[in-house]
Amino acid sequence: MSDELNQTQTAFASIQTPENEPIVQIKNVTKTFGDVYAVDDISLNIYPGEFFSLLGGSGCGKTTLLRMLAGFETPTSGHIFVDGQDVTELPPYERPLNMMFQSYALFPHMNVEDNIAFGLKQEGMSKTLRSERVREMLHLVQIEKFAKRKPHQLSGGQRQRVALARALAKHPKILLLDEPLGALDKKLREQTQFELVNIQERLGITFIVVTHDQEEAMTMSSRIALLNEGRVMQVDTPRRIYEYPSSKFSANFIGGINLFEGQVVSQDNGIVTIDCEATGNQISVQHSQPLVAGMNVTIAVRPEKIRLSSDAPTQSAQAANHLRGEIKEIAYLGDVSIYHVDLASGKRVQFTQSNMQSLAEQPLEWNEQVDLFWQANACSLLVD
Q1: Where are the domains of the chain?
Q2: What share of the chain is helix, strand, coil (3-state, %, to 5)?
Q3: What is the pLDDT of residues 240-252, one digit of tens each?
Q4: pLDDT tens-digit map of 131-186
Q5: How many CA atoms lie within 13 A of 361 on its CB side?
Q6: Sheet harboring 77-82: ordered strands across?
Q7: Global confidence as pTM
Q8: CATH number of the domain at 3-96+172-252, please?
Q9: Is residue 289 a contact partner of residue 277, using CB atoms and an 8 Å limit?
Q10: Does 3 have pLDDT greater than 80?
Q11: Of 90, 140, 153, 202, which is least packed with CB atoms within 10 Å of its CB?
Q12: CATH code for the part of the protein at 256-383
């Protein structure tokens, strides 16, 4: 992740203070369709100026929750507050927010300017002010030269910009985005992620985004709510969700992960010693919360935290956890290579290495025996 985005996320971390009231409050909201709980007793606070993502797989309830925020669905129970006002029963057009749909929903018979101006015209804004606002939006999303084109004359990325400009034209307090980048190819999607962050930061509007793409959520968000089966599993900054998952679901959903089951042996000076059958030895984990001997725990280690023992600094060798196994699979991805290593127990471990050298100079091969290590502070514990 770039330094620029890290700085942005650090700045947003200061938003969540007692002095700042949430701009959106979702209180015990449930939505059922017959016997199916699409959203199950969700409570969330979203603060002014946040880029907040609802992240999860298909059927987790994220789009239903967004539609209830927009007013297209009514909660079965619970309340939704926007800027202190209970909007639970209000229709969409009375809410101080706007929505950008996944399909973009542009009017095919209107050119770009008219699409952007449509909502302003419906509100009764004067022609002069309307023209000024449209020019402002065209400049903001950098599509001035396409102003007279119809939607069918635009690329997917250009249509996405028109839809965004139309949604922002009314200067809403909150912008809801439903899978806004889903129709774009990978390279354009990555480029547009940064552009959305920059636009949101410049305007200071609260963005609430639905996405199933973990990389997209990690790149753009100040905070993420991770959903599964209609419930919130974890709400935190991208960095904390990645480094300190609160559950096996969170650990598995965000990025690659190695999970080892074990039992606590002892805890001393902030280091927990764990018996781990899969590794055939004891594992050390830095953990500040008190644990009881005999507790079942899960050790979570990200693939990039695991390194070859030949790379281990001599002074840290005592603090490292060591494994030995055989390389069974190698995936070359350009910037990194992913290795799957089988331990003697049959447990498969994944680790990654940056490709600092050319492929011809890479030292690791299939069926090669390797010694791996990671530090006690490079993993986390999940308590069952």
Answers
A1: 3-96+172-252, 256-383
A2: 30, 35, 35
A3: 999 999 999 999 9
A4: 999 999 999 898 999 999 999 999 988 998 999 999 999 889 999 999 888 777 88
A5: 5
A6: 36-46, 24-33, 77-82, 85-86
A7: 0.88
A8: 3.40.50.300
A9: no
A10: no
A11: 202
A12: 2.40.50.140
